[in-house]
Amino acid sequence: MDKTQDVFQTHGWRQMLLTRCEGLAPIPTAVAHPCDPVSIEAVCEAAARGLITPILVGPEARIRAVADKAGLDISGFRLEATAHSHASADRAVALVRSGEASLLMKGSLHTDELMGAVTNAATGLRTARRISHVYLMDVPRYPRPLLISDAAINIAPSLEDKRDIVQNAIDLAHVLGIDQPRVAILSAVETINSKLQSTLDAAALCKMADRGQITGGLLDGPLAFDNAISLEAARDKGIVSPVAGQADILIVPDLVSGNILAKQLTFLAGADAAGVVAGARVPIILTSRADPEAARIASCAVAVLMAHAALASLPGPLA
User: Fold this and answer.
1) How much is the pLDDT for 311?
2) Which of 20, 102, 133, 140 counts the most CB atoms within 10 A of its CB?
């Protein structure tokens, strides 16, 4: 047997996500500007799997030309014609606001364009909660699903932002069947240092959980990455904690560190990834154009489970 392949064998949680969606009704989904083959292929595959009922939003001639060139049949999909990508983002958000769509999916436009429409104070999809992105990672050498936040939306989150980032991740963990997720607040060290803001934020977040400002999970921090995911490393440092060494959720200090961490796990550790934006009126499927189709479909599955969770119609736990 190829030992390298054995080392990078994932646990199959991506398939478990799809299995959990079986039998659930497809969710009407506004797809903003699906104007390249990757976007159209993902939409068609998600629809074929019964995950979504797509509403394609973008320049009609361009969308049809891309689908024809890729040999994909989109004749059964509703198509809302717009002139350009900014208009596509605005119209897709409007479809959600009107109740015609219950999910929002990014096509081939830039993330900033879509999120600009989402966060518009007058016409967007904001709630009282800060919007944040959550990765669900299936890491070969880690025995459970690993959620990482925020690696895509909030560049330098404040303490108040981090409170919402933590709560969004906990709420998603509940959807996945993790009843009391263990949340590690990451920094470079596991001790509080007044010169290192991430350690002060970690301590404050833990106290906020003690006071009921964050609910539904067990928090500990600051924790260095090794102490968060390795029981042996935690023991070596003398850390006694229900979270250390067995975290379900990793909360990173900022977008840069989170983005690097998630991509390292994907490209160097062979992890499978899915991602979703939480904290808006509906889940948002915000994949990268570099993501493989399997990651896009898994992200759709996560969003579909979140949408059905609001209807209290979920099957059993993921793990």
Assistant:
1) 72
2) 133
